[in-house]
Model the fold of this input.
Amino acid sequence: MATARTTAAERRRQILDAAVRVFARQGFHTCRVSDIADEAGVAYGLLYHYFRSKEEVLDTLFLERWDVMVEVIQQVDRRTELTAREKLTAITSFIVDSYRHDPDLLKVVIVEVTRAAHTFGRTHLDAINRAYACLGAIIEQGMKDGEFRDSVSPQFAAMAFYGAIEQALTGWIFDMLPRSEESFEQIKLFIVDTICGGLDNPTPQGPAAS
Done:
């Protein structure tokens, strides 16, 4: 029985991995369920045993990846030895490295979900806003500690921060930026310097006295 469950889980993963390749190559709206089944090497009807539609496949791919990112943001935020800027640096590094290691998946998440304002993006607003709230909490604490100035709202700063990361990923997706190790590392620094440089308090006061 345990073997059967493992096999089912592996088959489900096989379908999801195939869907990433198909969505990245053809686009979500132009591909068919049969394209995913062919890529996965499974019967057309078997795919419906695991997923009701290609929309459910995309939902699953997005939520899997997004939930991992939110968990990483929360883990980084719990590291009290880090400054707010160091936390944002660690989060930037994680997201950029995620693209380096799985560019097709990040392409699907960005092109087919977070930038699809009238379809999947709107469907997943709660999940997207959860990430912004976690980033906003880090920035707000940086403001309370005197590390960042408070002339902008933490919520807007969080959106600008993630937006800068997503725009860099878009640059790689559409070949506007070179895909080299040097470029990946340089862009990490550019993102943090651009956003945190705008947030930095010119007269840092240190943590507020208790």
